[in-house]
Amino acid sequence: MYRRNEWSGVTGRQFEEEFVAEFRSVWDGSYIPFRRAMEIVRRNQPRNAVHAEGQRLLVAIAEAMGVSVNELTLFTAAGNNALDWFHKVDAFIDFRGVTVNLDFKMRNLDSRKAFVVRPLDVENGFSFLAQSIASFIRRGMDMRGLVPV
After folding, report:
1. Which end of the chain has fewer beta carbons closer than 10 Å to its terminal beta carbon, N or C?
2. Residue ranges in the chain modelled with pLDDT below 70
């Protein structure tokens, strides 16, 4: 693991690896629609897909929601696959029917498709990011008529 405040020189791929394992699948490089790409990722998860920082992120989100961390499932899509390549999703979290997309970035870029996880989020213990994701999940549950947390 990289020590805090020492992210210079770390590549985006190395940053991703702090959170999740690389997702490997047989893929010919052709376009796959978003929902189909997510199903492929869900069904083909590697063992030990969640690494140390990924677990810390899940714990922070669970605490922000007041639920057990075991209720959150983190799926890795980081690597050579359609979900990462075409849809810019490195990982996603499922909680009671609500899915949250994540994109791990070293630079200060935004995403319209995913919550962006940056080194600054790691350094501040995921406090703001976890609250934002918890709020998104609550809104998603409310919109679907699910029991809120």
Report:
1. N
2. 1-7, 147-149
